[in-house]
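does this look right to u?? pyridoxal-5'-phosphate version
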Amino acid sequence: MTSEDFRSAAHAAAGLVADYLEGLADRPVWQPMAAADRQALLDLPLPETGTDLDGLLKTVAEQVLPAPMGNGNPRFFGWVNSAPQPAGVLATLVASAMNPSSAGGDHADVHLERAVVRWIAELVGFPHPAGGGLLTSGTSMATIVCLAAARNRAALRAGVDVRAEGLAALPPLVGYVTGETHSCVRKAAELLGLGSRHLRTVATDAEGRLDTAALEAAIAEDRAAGRLPFLVVASAGTVGTGAVDAFHPIADLAEREGLWMHVDGAYGAFGVLDPVIAHRYAGMDRADSLALDPHKWLGVPVDCGCALVRDTEGLRGTFSLVPSYLRDEAAGSLGWFSEYGTEQTRPFRSLKVWASVAHRGREGVAADIAHTTALARRLGELVEADPALELLAPVETSIVAFRYRPAGLDGEELDRINRELPAAVQLRGRVFVTGAVLGGHEMLRACLLNATTTEADVRLLVDEVHAAAAGLTGRPDTSGPA
Ligand SMILES: *Cc1c(COP(=O)(O)O)cnc(C)c1O
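got this back:
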């Protein structure tokens, strides 16, 4: 391959990508793949001989780009998957061309990661001591990083070096979550040997927020039984309804009881940038650690999570294998990122974060966030005004939890219809929404992350729910006049 071959194929690839992005809004949001197309991918034979770049692009154009997940489309409201920032898409190409390992050393990617981690902390108003965090594959990994630091601190306070001795030398460490806490916390607790049984579920109030009186009672009970409470996990935007915990009372209690306060802000932490809802986040900056996902509301192309911590030396003491007497000489006073987390060879994630934020500036990012929260509140109003729909939680951030409930539909049938509705809506191809279970009830859950989504798009979502429901129930379409 000559450099001319690469240059011309790169131009062709850029054209394909631009066409793809430009055409997204005009195609079905998602369609099931034709069985033959799916099988063709599954059965791709390992090629004996090579294919030139143009040949590879032909396969991409014919077999890959036509079958997207749908999350680039402004009418995609599923899960927590955003459209990619175009600036971040370009940065991905550059980052892979440089292909460093951002473990440490003196090259641009390492220093840029220090800067963008600080930017992320500044965007959400979290304290940022030098070295106070790193980029990860997502919040699942960021949570493992943060909870490992929490475990290490709790053990040290109990006089045990858990890195050397393991957990056997300690009484059971107990952490507190709610029924709305994301499953990645349980996964982290299991992997860290804490045992999911020692992750206690604390009651929530009517708005889905952690009930601090219940937390206090649970802590007392665990102490009386000889267990060691060490962690409370709060949410800056639950995945089910987007609820934000009341952080100050949790932080007060955590301080009094010596608990590590971790905040899961994977989806919702960036909501603090919207002045209309910023007050809900008061006290988030008091957490010991905050995990969040630039690859969600910020639109940084997947993957990119971030772990932020208050005590950088504590984090380094959890992961570093560099003897302390070598640290400064080895890599400058902050050392290597590989001393603060699980990965050794690390990708150049910071360039796509830098591009996705720098292209819009703080103002542009905040405007995008505010647009989506306003649209979510609008959708909440449409749902409330619709006699066949029921809003199941206040719209606190940009998630709208609701269900289809026309007069006369109840019991088992109500749950069955709502369980089947998301797939029925998806198959129609005009909007994409997913489902969840809240308080034992099947529901629909629309998550707004895309700043190009319009009010017409959310109105279409309501219409599509009615149309799909009519197909499932055999009742006439219950939507009102358009
Ligand atoms: C997405 C999400 C996670 C998991 O993050 P990944 O980036 O998928 O690993 C955790 N918590 C919440 C609230 C989320 O929305």
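The longest strand covers residues 228-235. idk if thats expected tbh
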